[in-house]
Sequence to fold (899 residues):
Amino acid sequence: MTEHLKMDEVQPRLLDETGQGAITRPMDRPEGPLKVSGRATYAAEYKAANMAFGVMVRAGITKGGYSIDESSVKDMDGFLGVWTDHMIRNSAQGMMDTNPVQLGQRVQYLGQPIAVVAAETFEQARHIANRLKVDYSPEDGDVDPETASQVDQSVALDQGDLEQAMKDAEFTVDSTYTTKPHNSAPMEPHASLAEWDGEKLTLHGSYQMLKYNKNELADSLDMDADDIRILAPYVGGGFGSKLGIAAEAVGAAVAAKALKRPVRVVMSRQNVFEMVVRRTETRQRVRLAADKDGRLTGLGHDNRQSNLPDEGFSEPVTLATHFLYGGENRRYEQEVARVHRMAAGSVRAPGEAVGMLALENAMDELAETVGIDPIDLRVRNIPEIHPESGKQYSSRSLAQCLKEGAASFGWDQRKGPKERREGEWYVGMGVAAAARTNILMESKARVTLNPDGTALVETDMTDIGTGTYAILGQIAAEMLGLDPSKVTVDLGDTDLPAGSGSGGSWGAASAGSSVFLGAKAIRAKLAERLGCEPSALRLQDGMATGGNNRRPLAELMEGPIAEEGHIEPGDMSDEMQQAGYGAHFAEVAVNSVTGEVRVRRTLSAMAAGRILNEKTAASQVHGGMIWGIGTALHEAIEHDPRTGHVVNNDLAEYHVPVHLDVPQLDVMFIEERDDHANPMQVKGIGELGLAGAGAAVTNAIYNACGVRVRDYPATPDRIFPHL
Amino acid sequence: MKITLSVNGEERSLDVDPRTTLLDALRDHLDMTGSKKGCDHGQCGACTMLVNGRRINSCLALAVMHEGDEVTTIEGLGEPGALSPLQKAFVRHDGYQCGYCTPGQIVSAKAMIAEFSNGWPSYVSDDLEAAPDFSEAEIKERMSGNLCRCSAYPGICAAIKDAAPEEGLNEREAAE
Ligand code: FES
Ligand code: FES
Fold:
């Protein structure tokens, strides 16, 4: 049986009644012992009998045609073959659900996957890929987003008259910010092991959204999706880069089919930097018009970014700008320059991660211009209703996050620029708001309760480090009145009911709701057997109570009860403006001689509805804040201005934060329930932690030393000349 | 080429290509996939192993260079049901998310505690002669070769601090 819910109306707060105490508490991850002992197995760690090794071949030109000279390598030790069939230009975009661009024998950026070679060993395959002769017929192509000849322009909204509002305003800000491209850089490189059994393909891969990945792979290979099974029980980080099927999966499948033996292809770190997706660079202009009290009368947020020709994705830079602050005159213009650089796509918190840097820096500039506290300014500008659509907001504890966060952080100790000095260092504080649209996606899961008081949760949902194993077990345990240790969670297998996949911070709410519904159906059955209304049923520690009856679960059950839960988004998504909110605080020290920045401490006050696991949720927020620090201070892809290729395509040259970059990070959760979001009243948090985080750092830099960095990242060379 | 290694106390003989790294020798030839490959270039620390007691990036070492060496990997530190103090502390403090950098972090931390205990100074030590304090700054500096993109750094640092006394902090090695 399937318990189906379309989220058309507010649901009762059942999880406030159940009382098992499994939910919200900071439970350790159940898969922890496997991970800390090296026993959790990631995609490249599966082996098959008679397996061959594949390596991707990258394009050596920016644009043009190519042909492979197989004779250049066919006599090398271990050579098994080289194939260009079905090559995809770049990874599929999130939820694309079909094949990415396939070009045949054409190149559109330097570093593009153009072939896969296979050999008996990895060392042989790598050598062959390096030695393979490729004949190119190069053509000219635009690589610079600023001068590109093809630019797609759009105006998302032009409400009222922003120009006039800027003229009439008491105070204005008109600033331009730039951000560099970013790479997701998950620690596990993309990897696939493909095995064919006749027309059936089994792929061990490292992917975030299996039900879509199956279709993307099928369409890329021109085959039936029903013949594909993808397994990804452990995924070594994704952050957007594993949303869509990538070149190594296609390469492995093609080679394995041709060789009639299993083939494993693992991307090199350099491949991950080039063949997957980057976050686009952005140039953003933010205009703010305010009255004498700092109330916004107008707001404009324009951006220019880039992507490959025919790539549908654009970074939704203004996602949060639409609903965070008021002001009746509003305008958003976007330009996407078409260039021959690697594809742009989703990197953690697409939109907010860079859009909120500009917006929240501009708000800081406005606070200074108006002469009021940045927290006051933000609270003053929280709109009653959505300033564009007129929708009501669901839960929105933004003011509380700002105020309670400020009190806990010691915001009242903040001074003006260069007013706090400790030895060589200027010290300052900064704040930024956080907002991330909350989304519910269709998701299915099967829950089985056994008479021995154990339970099983099954879905093709993934755990990419987000804590899915923990929270799905906790939800089932809470609903069924079991200790979470009694619940087994099976994930990452397309033979299981199709979950939402991990992306857009909707995994916990969506996959979680499907587990909730499956368990709710089991509760209904138990209530019937106990002879009470489902609402009167109480399940705790393996005992069922209701209607003056109290019996152990085992006595109520003749055999296992299995139910499928199925959640779908409904009217609540359309009718209400739903988002998670928060406030980030940072204290930084800026070296008065070198301009070096050190983040000293941070606090993130977050409101994301019901928290399912305080430990894993806090870890998500830590991750977001640390990404914010990286974005603010050092992360930047550098493209070669002549060829467009990624120059710093490894972890030595692309600087992700390391241990010593990260100070004490505090997190506080504001108690909240979002009745409109889903039947569990939870909202996503994985990306909320990053939204605005970097702006708190750069605002703190200004407060410390009086230098406004508008070109990210805030490396010393952008600070010390202005000190 | 035929070589013999002592892996987690067990003699293992294998036949490898001279180009095979120590990391791949274990992952692909001995099916010990606990040590991870994040970059294959000595840039991330996911492949950290102990060779004769010292931590190294095993992706930068050729297997054939280690004939007769004693190699310790994450699998040798503990297993589910019998985890080492560091491993338990990582679980308790959520010192990981996806878990991919985790074996490297733990093996690295194990060696780092020993280095510290033997008085090795670091870039953040105030005094090169005096015994350093086991402070957060020292832990973080000494662990900065182990990247974690999930950014579990706060939990990792807390776990190391918590488990260090049980992992022999301040016990000098005679063999130093
Ligand atoms: S895999 Fe060895 S340091 Fe990255
Ligand atoms: S736990 Fe994912 S990279 Fe460290």
Observations:
- The pocket of FE2/S2 (inorganic) cluster (ligand 2) is lined by residues A 187, 237, 465; B 96-102, 148-150, 152 (CB under 6 Å).
- The mean pLDDT of chain B is 95.
- Chain B touches chain A through 65 residues (CB under 8 Å).
- The domain at 2-77 of chain B is CATH 3.10.20.30 (Ubiquitin-like (UB roll)).
